[in-house]
Amino acid sequence: MADRPNIILILNDDMGFSDLGCYGGEIETPSLNELADNGIRFTQFYNTARCCPTRASLLTGLYQHQAAVGHMMNDYDHDGYRGDLSPKSVTIAQVLKASGYSTYMSGKWHVTRHITGPQHNWPIQRGFDRFHGTIQGACSYFQPTTLTIDNKSVEPPDEDDYYYTDAISDWACKFIKEHKEERSEIPFFTYVAYTAPHWPLHAPKEDVARYKGRFDCGWDKLRDERLERLIEMGIIHPDWKLTPRDESQVPWEQAENKEWQARRMEVYAAQVDRMDQGIGRIIQTLKDTGQLGNTLIMFLADNGGCAEEIGGQWGKSMPKSNIATARTRDGGEVAFGNDPSRMPGGEDTYQSYGVPWANVSNTPFRLYKHWVHEGGIATPLIVHWPDKIPGLGELRDQPGQLPDIMATFLEVAGAEYPAEYEGNELFPLEGKSLTPIFDDEPNEREVLYWEHEGNRAVRKGNWKLVNKHPGDWELYDIAADRTELNDLAADHPDVVKALVPLYEEWAERCGVIPWTELMEEQRMKREGEK
Predict the structure, then answer these.
(1) 393-408 burial, b for 16+ CB within 10 Å, e for fewer?
(2) Which one of 133, 253, 484, 502 is most buried, by most CB atoms within 10 A?
(3) Could you read off the pLDDT of 410-435 as tens digits, one per residue?
(4) What is the rounded CA–CA span in Å between residue 144 and residue 402?
């Protein structure tokens, strides 16, 4: 195909449904707003509720358990839970490279438990021609650990203004420029995987300063304001009610340490803002090299807002882990944990924005990262492709899920998903192309499935059956009540009875192990090793 598009896939980390300006948020995101205004926005696209399972599903076009990343980067002695991409999977990069694309990646990998070696599941071995980024998940933005160029581990540059988000953006621009100069006759695929705005709350001072006072009105008012904008934009139906404030949190008027609380959100906003600035440089690079028109860009998030509060034993263990450094670049001590006496943002802190602000990020939905209620799994999806998608800033309400991204890329690239790869028989591709939705038509996906840490869900049509582990099944009519406030399980036992077998059949087919059973196995294993 002579007119095969370039493809850029941008994924960010731990961002809520309504943080972007083009999804109702007050954070300044002009670059992503530009893509949305000249492309389309999905209102019902879904991830897996957690970072590495999302990456595994996104990259392979499979469900995460099939890709062997059913939980995190641990080997639980089951094929679906190896913490390392399955040999029965193939990545977008591997298929597109075999089809004649150049392939590049900048950012967070996080789909192998082998962070120092072996390298069989590192980006270069999984289809990328060039790689700059981190093999592990979270890290300091000023001193990222497991930083790697191609297959070589490197130290962060000794520069006062070094910031990992900027480095991710700059290397993506570098790859695009070099490709134009050296290989312009063939298309490219570039995967840009930001760690922003995942904790720790680290951001350049000038970006944080721009948000000073912006969140002083507190979480209650901000949630109301976001809901109003979401309704005005047509992203949220006016009949859907705002979920109550998280029951663990007090009204803003009663909150203690207001200056520190507001500062947490100021830094978080600055992290998103800085990422958007980098995306702006990527867009400008495409314009400067004359490649924007026939470049398909997709942007999404790996899970909903993260309510994790850093503290206790977890916070104390971080300096000894590979996701943090105990000292700053000039030798100072890093203070770990959400301590209201220490303002976050600088390299000498390691904090998160926690429950109250994640509740804002996920407006108007329930729950957060980890859970498969809408707050954990609903993501923005922006699609921009000037040569093929009219730039009308339209919305698309048809639902989709992560495996659909790979199916879409292969279709537009004219690439074929293989039955086997390097001698390994592959799981069949699970995704359904989103290209019909580009034209505002339905795609072929009829049922969506989720499981993470025992939290389970299945959606068919407008019915969503969902379970917050270890509770009971709940049933919601998503068309009437997407904020999941009116449980209809008792009123429609016939629907529950029809959906449960769908979930169970999927779980068995994909290698899902009941969470209680899996955790009991691990407990017994630990006891046996003592």
Answers:
(1) beebebbbbbbbbbbb
(2) 133
(3) 999 999 999 999 999 999 999 999 99
(4) 27
| Percent of the chain that is helix, strand, coil (3-state, to 5) | 35, 20, 50
- 527 band by pLDDT with thresholds 50, 70 and 90: confident
CB 371 within 8 A of CB 49: yes
The position carrying tokens 């001193």 is 143
Distant-in-sequence, close-in-space partners of 149: CB < 8 Å, separation ≥ 6: 131, 132
Cα angle for residues 327, 320, 371 (degrees, 5° grid): 110
Q: How confident is the model at residue 1 (pLDDT cuts 50, 70, 90)?
A: very low
Report d(CA 413, CA 174) in Å as an integer: 23
How many residues comprise the chain? 530
Q: Which residue has 């995306």 as its token pair?
A: 279
- C-alpha to C-alpha distance for 59 and 42, rounded to whole angstroms: 20
Q: Residue 2: its pLDDT value, please?
A: 53
- Domains of the chain (ranges plus CATH)? 6-445 (3.40.720.10)
Cα 251 from Cα 47, distance rounded (Å)? 30
- The secondary structure of residue 318, as a DSSP letter, is G
Q: Which helix (H) or strand (E) holds 275?
A: helix 258-288
CA dist., res. 456 & res. 447, Å (int)? 14
Cβ pair 139, 164 in contact under 8 A: yes
Which residues make Cβ contacts (< 8 Å) with residue 160, sequence separation at least 6?
A: none
Inter-CA distances, 98 with 175, 190, 279, 488, Å: 19, 15, 28, 48
> Are the C-beta atoms of 277 and 520 separated by less than 8 Å?
no
Nearest to 47 by CA among 376, 465, 399: 376
Give CA 402 to chain center in angstroms: 10
Q: What's the DSSP call for residue 81?
A: B
The secondary element (H helix, E strand) that includes residue 5 is: none
**β-pair type (420-421, 400-401):** unpaired
| 306: confidence class by pLDDT, cuts 50, 70, 90 | very high
378-384 vs 40-46, strand pairing mode = antiparallel
One-letter amino acid for residue 507 of the chain: A
Distance CA 292, CA 314 (A): 44
Specify the 3-state DSSP secondary structure of 231: helix
- Beta-sheet strands, E only, within 371-410: 378-384, 394-396, 400-401
CA distance 332 to 18: 36
Instruction: Quickly count: other Cβ atoms within 10 Å of residue 355's Cβ.
Output: 18
Contact 343, 405 (CB under 8 A): no
Torsion angles phi and psi, residue 390, rounded to 5? -55, 135
| Contact partners, residue 387, CB within 8 Å, separation at least 6 | 5, 293, 294
